Amino acid sequence: MNFRFFNFLVVAVVAVTMMFLGCKKSEELSFDVPSDSILIEVNRAGDEGTTSFASHNISAVNVVSTPSGWEVTDIDMYAKTITVKSPATFDDGEVREGTLSLSGYSPRGTLKSVSIHVAILQKPDIDYRNAPANCYVAPQAQTRYLFNAMIGGSTTPLETVSLRLIWQSVSGLVPYIDFEDGVGSFYVEALTENEDEDEGYFEPGNALIGAYDAQGELIWTWHIWVTQSNPADDAITLNGVEMMNRNLGANCNSEGKNDSKLIGQSYGMYYQWGRRTPIVGPQMWNFSANFDMTLWDANGVDMAVKYTESTAETGSVAWAERNPRVIITGNKDNAYDWLYEGHDDSLWSTTSKSEHDPCPAGWRLPTSELFEDLTISPVDDAMDWHEAQTMYGWRLVYANAPSGEAFFFSAAGRRNYIDGRLDIVNDDDVCPVPWAGYYWTATTTDDGKAKAMFFDLNSATRTCNGFDAARSMHRANAMPVRCVRE
User: Which tens digit of pLDDT belongs to each residue from 300-313?
Assistant: First the structure.
């Protein structure tokens, strides 16, 4: 082959390749609606709703289909907003909710499609904007919940650009999240319309929503506690203090019933001392195979809890804030705290609700003194241990009034401080027992630990069932908590 011709051929091939790659690169496009929904307030038929969209290399947006009676009134390509009007009447087949389909086109005609859920709400909003906290309770379905994007429990605003789901314990639990004019919102819908279930039935569970800044960095999180009844409605009074009758994040109190579903739903979330972000518990109520509960992202893809050792990089409050799905195992040189250096007693407080307190508005973590006058019910203590095992917990009573009111606490175990493993036994090497209960308090010790209420079931000698109102525990342990009224 002629050498000059070969050089010309190589140059031509390179030029064509570069043109192809350049065209391909120019065709990179994205079209996304972060909230995936436009929700019209209850009793506002015929009203308009707006949502924002994010796009790259999209020059036009066309409406593909709308639910009957719904109309797209504006698509603002500059402001990147979509406005939809709901039907005013429902006489001719118009629907209260449905799916809106759109297609975004690049200058070369490449398309990207999106779907938006549109609906007229069935129930009024539940408004938490005047009750800021790190946890929001969602006790009913088909409802939108509003909250201000503030630093936990304060009126200090965050530089939030968007809200996103980090994880949820039930796929589709919190399907629509939005952020507009400083106000965040999430929606809980009925997941089942089975004739065997009540209208509006939904699965209970937990979710974590994150606030992100303009650089896409996670700057704060909120725990969403989806439960089938309001935890404040069945509160108990313990030593003169009002306390929730269920663990934070639990759907119920099993009250000692031999029912695997109730037992599993009574455990709630687990917390390393001083961290406000919840950690899920076991997949199975009996801790079978020690599997972690499966988590799900916004697209229904399964996720898992992560683990890391406490180091100079990972063992800080800032790193823990940015990595809420990670369990930070204990640092042996720092009394098995998840913090790498020093102990921060201010993360949870015994005197006032702290910025990192995980409880909902109006509630806070208890002190260890709350449990001082309690002991295991003599009736339970004398029970045949085969029967006692089925309860997965103990009824606690006042030591000076053992025949009085009893309070049931689930034996939800813990995630231990060494490797984050789920444990349902105590840490006695000589006599480990079938199940144990640990409940964090806000009370700290002088040696870098913190106090937890503890009990266990001693199957060998039932008269020696253990109870400790204020056991010193390493702070890297993750345990359930019970919230008390502020």
Answer: 999 999 999 999 99
pLDDT band at 21 (very low <50, low <70, confident <90, very high): very low
Q: What is the mean pLDDT of residues 21-28?
A: 53
> What does the alpha-carbon distance between residue 269 and residue 231 come to, in Å, rounded to a whole number?
14
Tell me the two tokens of residue 206. Answer: 């937990």
Residue 305 CA to residue 322 CA, distance in Å, equals 14
Are 475 and 445 contacting, i.e. CB atoms less than 8 angstroms apart?
Answer: no
Q: What is the pLDDT of residues 107-147, one digit of tens each?
A: 988 989 999 999 999 899 999 999 999 999 999 998 999 99
Per the CB < 8 A criterion, the answer to whether 71 and 44 are in contact is: no
The model's pLDDT over 226-262, given as tens digits with 9 standing for 90+, comes to 999 999 999 999 999 999 999 999 999 999 999 999 9
pLDDT score for 426 = 64
State pTM to two decimals: 0.89
Q: Which residues pair with 452 in a beta bridge?
A: 440, 471
Question: Mean pLDDT over residues 178-187, rounded?
Answer: 92
SS3 letters across the chain: CCHHHHHHHHHHHHHHHHHHHHHHHHCCCEEECCCCEEEECCCCCCCEEEEECEEECCCEEEEEECCCCCEEEEEECCCCEEEEECCCCCCCCCCCEEEEEEEEECCCCCEEEEEEEEEECCCCCEECCCCCCCEEEECCCCEEEEEECECCCCCCECCCCEEEEEEECCCCCCCEEEEECCEEEEEECCCCCCCCCCCCCCCCEEEEEEEECCCCCEEEEEEEEECCCCCCCCCEEECCEEECCCCCCCCCCCCCCCCHHHHHHCCCCEEECCCCCCECCECCCCCHHHCECCEECCCCCEECCEEEECCCCCCCHHHHHHCCCEEEECEHHHCCECCCCCCCCCCCCCCCCCCCCCCCCCEECCCHHHHCCEEECHHHHCCCHHHHHCCCEEEEEECCECCCCCEEEECCEEECCCCCCEECCCCCCCCCCCCEEEEEEEEECCCCCEEEEEEECCCCCHHHCCEEEEEEECCCCEECCCCEEC
Strand order in the sheet with 393-398: 374-376, 393-398, 407-410
What's the length of the chain?
486
At 229, which amino acid appears?
Answer: S
The pLDDT-based confidence of 15 (bands split at 50, 70, 90) is very low
